[in-house]
């Protein structure tokens, strides 16, 4: 039995946040979910003083599986981090084209993750798979610990906010009707709907008088604010955003980014935001996931991605975006 097999037994098949390997020669190796933290030969190892160094045990299975089981003791260490969304070997292809190669990642609860890459890299495909708009060719997806049930997607989507580029507002509905469409589907009381619409409009800086307007009577930035209100109407724990600010002018884009920051401070939730702009990712995200040609290039904290790019693809994307 190798380390990975032992880990699976100890953690019931779930990759833990931290992994401590004690070798029988006295050496210790402490790993985080995505990074090798520290190694020494002392019995006075202090985990709190460990430093990140960019090693991913969850992906480098060859290295770990090459260590015989009779050379180590294994224990799970540190606080477990709940994953709001997990993908296990998820891939997607159509008509002979591979849109997303097998990827296994977990998105932490109440954090913002920017999914970044060039056009055609698989960013939107990844988001559509999580939302159930596409079904994986292989692999499985869990949301809040439950497998995505494609026979009960409407129920699942009530817990997922979805905002897209171009806002997707219904032109024949007023602002209030657009924002509250899920509440009306659930037959919520009119007073409850009115209170929630007022609350959301206030949060995004729009006056109550806008509730009776139609989308064509709003500016592009105002339409995008309304679309954000609609995505947040049921206060979902998961918010998916597919390049929501891509069509906005720089000033309005900046204002919308500030709205997201403030909304996250008021009511933290898991947010996955697709963008091709590393500057936007740097401003909004806690973590960054980089895709290229449907393949995962790097998934790490914002600082680690920016300071230690995993390969030339990530480095080029950073340089092109931040110049």
Describe this structure in words.
The protein is α/β, with parallel strands linked by helices and 323 residues long. The protein folds into 2 domains: 74 residues, no CATH class; 240 residues, P-loop containing nucleotide triphosphate hydrolases (Rossmann fold, 3-Layer(aba) Sandwich), CATH 3.40.50. 32% of the residues lie in helices and 27% in strands. The protein has a 6-stranded mixed beta sheet, with helices on both faces. A 4-stranded antiparallel beta sheet has the order 3-2-1-4, covered by helices on one side. Strand 2 and strand 3 form a beta hairpin. 34% of the residues are buried.
Question: What does the secondary structure layout of this molecule look like, with pairings?
Answer:
Elements: H1 3-10, E1 18-23, E2 28-32, E3 36-40, H2 61-65, E4 72-76, E5 83-94, E6 97-108, E7 112-116, H3 123-130, E8 138-143, E9 146-147, H4 153-157, E10 160-164, H5 175-179, H6 181-185, H7 190-203, H8 220-232, E11 238-242, H9 250-266, E12 270-275, H10 278-284, E13 287-292, E14 295-301, H11 302-307, H12 312-322
Parallel strand pairs: 7-12, 7-13, 10-11, 11-12
Antiparallel strand pairs: 1-2, 1-4, 2-3, 5-6, 5-8, 8-9, 13-14
